[in-house]
Each structure stands twice: as C-alpha cells, then as structure tokens.
Specification:
The complex is a heterodimer of chains A (115) and B (113). Chain A is an all-beta fold and 115 residues long. In chain A, 0% of the residues lie in helices and 52% in strands. Chain A starts with a strand and ends with a strand. The chains are: A mainly beta (115), B mainly beta (113).
C-alpha cells in the first residue's frame, strides 16, 4: 500500500536553532514529494516539492528538503527556526504514473518553536 | 488574487439535515478535489474531479456526493449527515499534469450533532 509516515507528532525547537521534520514514504516507482504548512484556522499552504533532479529542494520561507531515495525519506529542514514557523506540517506523496493529481498525506507534525 | 473559496467556514447542524459546502476557484484549474482532515489521520480524499462532468470517488466517499457542472465550482453535498462526518473539510484545485501542487481553500469546519 502506498503511504507516507511522519514519525513525530510534535517537534520542539528553540528559536535560532536548526529544525528537521521527518518524512518517509512507501510507493511504487518514483514518487513526487511535497511539503505543506497549516497555520491555525487556515488552509494548507504549499512549501516545496521534489519532482526530479537535485536532491536538495529549496522552498518558501527559508525551508528546504532533502530527497533520499535509498532511505525513502524527504525530511524538511531549516537552518534557523523562527517562532513564526510554529505550525502543523504535512508531507505528501503523489505516486509516479498515477492517473490523477491525488496526494497521499502523512498525519502531520506539529512544530513548536520556543522563543 | 488566485484563490480557492469555501463556504461556509463553520457550520453546526443536526443528523439528517442535508447540507452543501460550496467550493469555487478562480485559477481555471481542471482538477478539483475534496479532503477531510481528522486528528491523527491526516487528510483523506473524499472525491475528485478531473474536469467538468467528470467525478470519481476518493478514499472515503461514503455519505458524500459531488457535482461538477462548471469548471470553477465543485460543491460537496451531505445528503443525510451523521456525527461521524464531523470534521474539517478542504477543497483543493490544481492544473492538469501530475507534477503540480494542490491549492487549498481555507477549510470548512462541520459539526453534526
């Protein structure tokens, strides 16, 4: 079965420190990978995606993610966390060769950045 | 401004009372979809539409209906809501082609008593 796992329900980090939000996936074939952020009472906002090419993808708000095919992972990173980064983060995958634009989402990771 | 607009944002209703959540996008996207978000489960797809008059079931379609009579609109219909449909609902749209990201509405929080 195709799936996405976000092993941490919550990640706590101090402002100014680097942050990592983990994501692993299980799909057939090469995946298309996405990260979204959800602020309280808001919809999901697109952060970045991996389609092909360079394994390090840069996105909005200073975030980046590293695609690792051998570990089937797509971890979200930021060198220096801000309090305003506190939000719910979702990893999602679209299986390569899929007939629709469907995304399979992880269960989300709550990022809490302490001042 | 490019956006996906959902209404209502918040709704409390009772079991069995039909309701419709509207969704409209102004980006001329062919693809539209509905998801529900529940704690610990992430987002799950309810229905999707590849284009006008083309709709199909997602992973959790039971108890829901949709229609796509116009390109910009994709309403979600709950004919006889039940308490297990209490959830946060999101409409999303995208361009054709599977490399594109989804654009989401602000969400509709539905409570069924």
């Amino acid at each position: 079965a195709q799936s996405v796992a976000q092993p941490e329900d919550q990640v706590n980090v101090a402002e100014g420190n680097p942050l990592t939000v983990k994501c692993t996936y299980s799909v057939s074939g090469n995946p298309y990978l996405f990260w979204y952020v959800q602020y309280p009472n808001r919809g999901l906002q697109f952060l970045l995606k991996y389609i092909t090419g360079d394994n390090l993808v840069k996105g909005s708000y200073g975030f980046e993610a590293e695609f690792n095919k051998s570990q089937t992972s797509f971890h979200l990173k930021k060198p220096s966390a801000l309090v305003s980064d506190s939000a719910l983060y979702f990893c999602a995958v679209r299986p390569y060769g899929g007939a629709t634009n469907k995304l399979i989402f992880g269960t989300g990771t709550l990022l809490a950045v302490q001042p | 401004e490019a956006q996906v607009t959902q209404n209502p944002r918040y709704l409390i209703t009772v079991t069995g009372k039909k309701l419709t959540v509207t969704c409209s996008q102004n980006m001329n996207h062919e693809y539209m979809s509905w998801y529900r978000q529940d704690p610990g489960l992430g987002l799950r797809q309810i229905y999707y539409s590849m284009n006008v008059e083309v709709t199909d079931k997602g992973d959790v379609p039971e108890g829901y209906k949709v229609s796509r009579k116009e390109k910009r609109n994709f309403p979600l219909i709950l004919e006889s809501p039940s308490p297990n449909q209490t959830s946060l609902y999101f409409c999303a749209s995208s361009l054709p082609g599977i490399t594109g990201e989804l654009f989401f509405g602000e969400g509709s929080r539905l409570t069924v008593l």
